[in-house]
Amino acid sequence: MLSEQSAATVRATLPAVGASLAEITERFYAGLFTARPELLRDLFNRGNQAAGTQRQALAGSIAAFATHLVDHPDERPDAMLGRIAHKHASLGVTAEQYALVHEHLFAAIADVLGEAVTPEVAAAWDEVYWLMANALIAIEKRLYDERGGSEWREWEVVGRVEETADVATFRLRPADGRPAPGFRAGQYVSVQVELPDGARQIRQYSLSAAPGSPVRQISVKRVPGGTAPDGEVSNHLHARVRAGDRLRMSAAYGDLVLAGTEAPLLLASAGIGVTPMVAMLGELADAGHEGRVIVVHGDRSPATHALRADHEAYAEKLQGASAHFWYETDADAPHRTGLVDLTDVAVPKGTRAYLCGPLPFMRTVRAQLIGKGVAPADIHYEVFGPDLWLAQEG
After folding, report:
1. Are 169 and 161 in contact (CB under 8 A)?
2. What are phi and psi of 213, to 5 degrees?
3. Rounded distance between C-alpha atoms, residue 388 and residue 59, angstroms
4. Class of 153-249 per CATH?
5. Cα–Cα–Cα angle for 138, 142, 146, nearest 5°?
6. Is 98 tagged catalytic?
7. Which of 42, 65, 267, 286 has the highest local Cβ count within 10 Å?
8. d(C-alpha 358, C-alpha 43), whole Å
9. Phi, psi of 46, deg, nearest 5
């Protein structure tokens, strides 16, 4: 992987670069969007940029990748790379864009670190960048090839259901009459909408029903406020999209999918993180799955628990399933009051766990599962928005 000379240089400079990554990524995005404003308008999430979360995620991934290269020179962090590649492919990122990112990222590094960026240091970090970039390009090409390219299609809304006061489900079918592309339960699609200012913003939403139907389903939580840029797409969908309208949608991507094993399963969600878990439960129920399945969910109240009827129905249909729901208020029997706590939940040896929800929730559940003997490699997660898990490590 990384050459010995570059590994020594990266190891020596990693503390200084890591300490400056927040400033480096801020300058990187500023330079990139000044040169190419259409990328912020039509590709990058303006809400994440305004909040700074995309910068945090980029800094975390660079630091994690470089650290992995120097600590494990014979290995590649494929799980991290795969998660990033799925997100990139859902957006339609191209191989050519990596050269553009390189140009502005290294200009930012030079601006921030100044004379510390000697030719040797620049060459070492250049090697790190292209190792990561070329790995992502290869994975993304494979993903595109598996789907016959990076085509976006028009989908017609054939139904809308108000799940809760803040969650609406949209049912869609291909507007061109061609067969709907396949997907795996747990995956997401990108949806692009044109906003009043002409921006064509993109957001990812999990498919909230199991595979097998020509109709696709996404369940969208409205973000409070809705003033640009935060919540602008979810509020647009809630306010403007009805049956008969059309949405531009990508193929399905995402690596949070069931592994096809007979191991016991635990599907844990909180809030709108329920969407991929309901799809997984539906897939298991349709397949007549007979193994042990532990269903865990936390929400503010039963009234805010989106897709609750499906969540409960699929769990009841599975002979080996047990459901454990926590509500902060108004918990109804047999469910519990408070935050999710697995202390009293028996978790079998060899369990594979799938998590989706706010990052603090997933961190807590992961720690409890590890405490119960679940192997870290058997705990998988999905993050809505920038993946800040790595950015907040330590």
Report:
1. yes
2. -115, 145
3. 10
4. mainly beta
5. 170
6. yes
7. 267
8. 24
9. -65, -30
8 A C-beta contact, residue 228 and residue 143? no
Q: What CATH number does the domain located at 4-146 have?
A: 1.10.490.10
**DSSP H or E run through 132:** helix 119-146
Residue 177 contacts residue 198 (beta carbons within 8 Å) = no
**CB-based contact 128:10 (threshold 8 Å):** yes
Q: Is the dihedral of CA 171, 174, 177, 180 positive or negative?
A: negative
Of the candidates 109, 97, 135, the one whose C-alpha atom is nearest the C-alpha of residue 18 is 109
Is the separation of the CB atoms in 92 and 209 below 8 Å? no
- In degrees, rounded to 5, the angle at the alpha carbon of residue 197 between the alpha carbons of residues 196 and 200 is 85
354 part of the active site: no
> DSSP secondary-structure letter at 357?
S
Catalytic residue among 29, 98, 314, 327: 98
Helix (H, G, I), strand (E, B) or coil at 253: strand
166 contacts 304 by C-beta, under 8 angstroms? yes
Q: For residues 387 and 53, give the distance between their C-alpha atoms in angstroms, rounded to a whole number.
A: 9
Domain 4-146 and domain 153-249, same fold? Reply is no
Structure tokens at 256: 């949070």
Structure tokens at 201: 């913003």
Side-by-side strand order, sheet with 336-337: 336-337, 321-327, 293-299, 265-270, 352-356, 379-382
- Lookup: tokens for 267: 């599907």
What's the CATH fold of domain 265-392?
Answer: Rossmann fold (3.40.50)
The H or E element spanning position 12 is helix 4-35
The whole-model pTM stands at 0.94
Catalytic residue among 140, 163, 232, 382: 140
Domain boundaries, the chain: 4-146, 153-249, 265-392
Please give the pLDDT value at position 394.
35
Look at the alpha carbons of 203, 208, 213, 215 in this order and tell me if their dihedral is positive or negative. negative
Query: What is the token pair recorded at 81?
Result: 């790379």
Coil, strand or helix at 293? strand
Residues of the chain under the 50 pLDDT cut: 391-394
**Cα-to-chain-centroid distance, residue 193:** 19
